[in-house]
Queue: 3 jobs
Job 1
Amino acid sequence: MDWEQVVTYVFLVGEYLIKFFAIGTVPENRRPSSSSAWLLLILFLPVVGFPLYWLIGSPYVHGRRQRIQAQANHILAERTSHLPLHPGGVEPSAALAGLLHQNRQLTGLPCVQGTPEALYDDPDETFAAMAAAVEGAEHYVNVEFYIMSWDARTDGFFTALARAVARGVHVRLLLDHIGSRKYPGWSSFQQRLTDAGIDWHLMMPIKPLERRWRRPDLRNHRKLLVVDGEVAFVGSHNLIAPYYGSDRNRRVGRNWQDLSLQVRGDVVLAVEAVFATDWYIETGQLAEPRRTVLEVGIPATSAMQIVPSGPGFPTEPNLRLFVSLIHMASERVAITSPYFVPDESLLAAITTAAYRGVKVELFVGEEADQFLVGHAQRSYYRTLLEAGVHIHLYPAPAVLHAKYLTVDDEVAVIGSSNMDFRSFTLTYEVMLLGFGGDLVKRLQENDERYRSVSRELTLQEWLQEPWRRRYVDNVCRLTAALM
């Protein structure tokens, strides 16, 4: 036997050992669709698939980040154990009360009093409102966004941060490294933050020369702002012009359509707890809140609960939140998501609701800004339409980027989480659940605005789609499950 035969036999034995090992390990603690996608890649292309699986295949973080998140959840649960399931003055249904308990079990954060002050869709109005809140800061400002850019549209906000520092306010700022670095002016942006005296740090940094390495597929996608523990913003806006630094986007009118919420009350402390955890993970420093006492026993007119999620939460709180809400529905569900790639449980919840007579509406963009996710999303349209789901296509070239859901006239959630595999497992997200006030009504009014400019996709129209496009859709659907 010559050396070429030896190499061939070794290669074949190694390939079959890889496949044998993969079959018994890949499906562990993983949804079936993801397991199937990874196994197909490994079985057909083991030399590529197996190293890729070891690099990015796990949907969870391990080590220091996981330990800190678990400790934070325990501390939050312990310090809020004296609080009731929900504040007095609001009466959730039995199903909603169960959901509040579930969220608390998974994240350690209770349902507390919260007041929706304003809902913002226009980016300039959003940035102006944030700047105004910062202008009133006396003690500290905590800023955390996936994408940031100091451009003409965000200049007022960052200038307000600089002025706050100048008058003695401690401004802490977190931004995702990979999320922000690809936009124009990245180097000068960092220097401007430093020159302004802002205490800023990267989230999930990838700097191997500085021995700072994170899996490139795990990102922090949260978007939040807290001022003095009194007012907070959550939603889908990033701190960047709505054309995302692209002259081409600006020329063709391609703007991102977002939605953010300004709140006051005890819920602000919950938003602050999410920031404080991320701040400690990235810096090792404590971000002590100015106000720590929650108002117990004071009747509330509206209640809110913050639901963080991400790789540090193996129980997938955002996915369970969405599925539970849809199963609760008795009359109508309205979902707005830019990237809609549901897993089996979410797809079953949506179609089941439609089959039992609930009016289910899905608002998505006519064209997605990401090729793989856009086509993967399209692969679900036939199943949804056959179940009776109403799909509203927001007109291109705009990108519908808002992320919220309402159920009946009872409850709503809004925040940073998409309804896709990445948001369920690979990116840190934060959602706000609200009921008892007028948040649901405000979001339903926003639905009406989207509905008035969108067109409804019909099953008959969809069945006319060319075979070639459906083929691409299905391939991308498989690729989207590789996690």
Note: The longest strand covers residues 427-435.
Job 2
Amino acid sequence: MIETLSKNIFLYASQSKTMNRAAKKWGLRFGASQVVAGETIESAVKAVKSLNDKGLVCTVDHLGEFVSSREEATEATEYCIWTLDRIAESGVHCNLSLKLTQLGLDIDQRFCFNNMRRILDTAAKHRNFVRIDMEDYSHCQMTLDLLKELRQEYENVGTVIQSYLYRALQDVKDLKGVPLRLVKGAYKESPEVAYQEKAKVDENFMTIIKEHLLSGSYTAIATHDHNIIAKVTDFVKEKGISPDQFEFQMLYGFRKELQIRLAEEGYTMRVYIPFGNDWFGYFMRRLAERPQNVAFALKGMFSR
């Protein structure tokens, strides 16, 4: 009961524009600096280099929410392009992750599509890959529709499927051959569209992981759950699935020892590195996901 209440509070806070504006003035405080790699691309590249040196690969995400104008969306698009250029110049092993709402999805879908084309053209020039992060349920179908259109022209783009959604398995089947990041899900969704019980979310998570792997599609398994990781490693060994067909992904700042251990065992381990001053919504969703994250943040706040 207390855990559910805590989760709801953090998820509510993540959607607050007022708190988000205030957080930009605070800077990376209250433990956020442990999970957000600074406010600039230079700070993100520095973090990527450090992780590359330990055998880990990365993806970076310039955080941004509540974009309400074409000017803001265009600025975010330019920043994504510049980030891809900077990744190429630095020589780090790193992809790009982004959110379509930051590129104007809620303003004009065709405008957003054209912004994505500019980004994917740049990524293709650098032989890089772009992951479209999945947002809340209201944006799910729009995201998949836009992805389907982009995939007619670009192979260097994929998206995310959330196992707490009832539709997840069918979406994975429909997206056979598309590189997917599979996650449990971090937004507050209604019982009409999403499982509410952890056991059912976990069960569906393993179901969609197996479905995508067995289809021969490249699969990114994003979890900090060592039990899920153990089940996946057992499954791929049993089915003779090559390590080249999948990777594990975790968030920057979490379970660092496990990340390194998986890399040392020969698995591709990709770290999701967010950066930027628009960090509040991301940080609140991380606190909502697991009670342990709250203690993690408090530890960071009082160790400053």
Note: The domain at 37-278 is CATH 3.20.20.220 (TIM Barrel).
Job 3
Amino acid sequence: MVKQGRPQRGMVRILLGILMVLLGVWALEYRMQWDITQNGRNSLSQASVDLLQKLDGPVQVTAYATAQDPQLGDVRGMIRNFIAVYQRIKPDLTLDFIDPAEQPQLAHEAGVKLNGELVVRYHQRSARLTAINEQAFTNTLLRLARTHEKRLLALSGHGERKLDGIAQRDLGDFGSRLEAIGFNSEAFNFADEADIPRDTSVLLIASPQIDLLEGEIDQLLDYLARGGNLLWLADVGALHGLLPLAERLGIVFTPGVIVDPQAKRLRAPPGFALGTLYGRHAVTENFDYLTVFPFARQLILEHNREWFGSVLVEAAPQGWVETGEISDEVSFDADSDVAGPVSVAVALSRIVDDREQRVIVVGNGHFLANSHLGNGGNLDFGINMLNWLAGDEALIAIQPSATVDSRLVLSEWALTVMVGVFLVALPLAFLASGILVGWYRKRR
């Protein structure tokens, strides 16, 4: 057997030392992590990552938190761990701590009232944040990233869906999300103001229920002529005086309701259509979510030299436009129905006074209503539309990573079996085995 000489052992030690140093340097330079939680809940979503990469300057976060909280414990540690996830993507995002108990004057000047409250600053703009989660923090960055506040006016006075309404048909939940990302929304009634304000970023017409007056139509056409941006949600049925607006845009609304057999196979009610085909547009770029349009109508873009138009969403590729009555037994009639896929939403744009004017028309208002906003990617699609209309297509919609439901729900029979096994059968089995072992030992 050949023994290893001292020079060889010394060389091995040197090589091991060099390897350890290299591993140490590599560990300092590169960090790797794996998120094994359901749905990657402890990692940033791709939407948050994209937003951080688009912010072109430093972000300063000041946390007004004590070292320890009687109820929450190590508040600073929680904040530090939360911000560290963002700092790995954006190194120039800094975090500073101020103890509100030791420096109450600074906390008062910042308007801070809660222990653990954050103040986020970006490009001389600031916002306070009380909730520490990805959705709240990224929405705060979205608000600060906007160059100026966006004014969204919602036409009212004709039974339209309300952006602050709580009824099932209203858009209150959607309006709250828009406010969270920097839109200033308010109702507009021609009875209160004769003209639509010129600082309006987007005008919303959400499914009026009664006819608009002729003078109101003239004001809408004037708003369109001077380059105003518009989002029009048109449900099935009459246009209530808005036909001149449709003609000006070059859009034809066909009668009937879109029927989608695929939605029926997913146990959706009759008249629900799934948006699965998306056009090439800034609104739908990298958008691969399913959208759900209840009782939607078809839109057809006519050839128009004035506007550049594109289809945003097509639904029901295996369905059709049903012109008859909707029921569970509805079927395609080649003589009267229109075969799918069916266009549901279209985008229009043109240049007015050296500025791009943007319009989106959707043959459905239900998909953004409180009762249906949570279906599929409806919320993301709605926010993307408003961002594009307001000229902020670089900003994206952020949704929190939802944890898969991990609750264990047991039937009464299963609970009875578990009680019988663990509380009765197993103790009796252990008792019987003990008696048997004792009896066996006595016999020996």
Note: The CA atoms of residues 30 and 118 lie 29 Å apart.
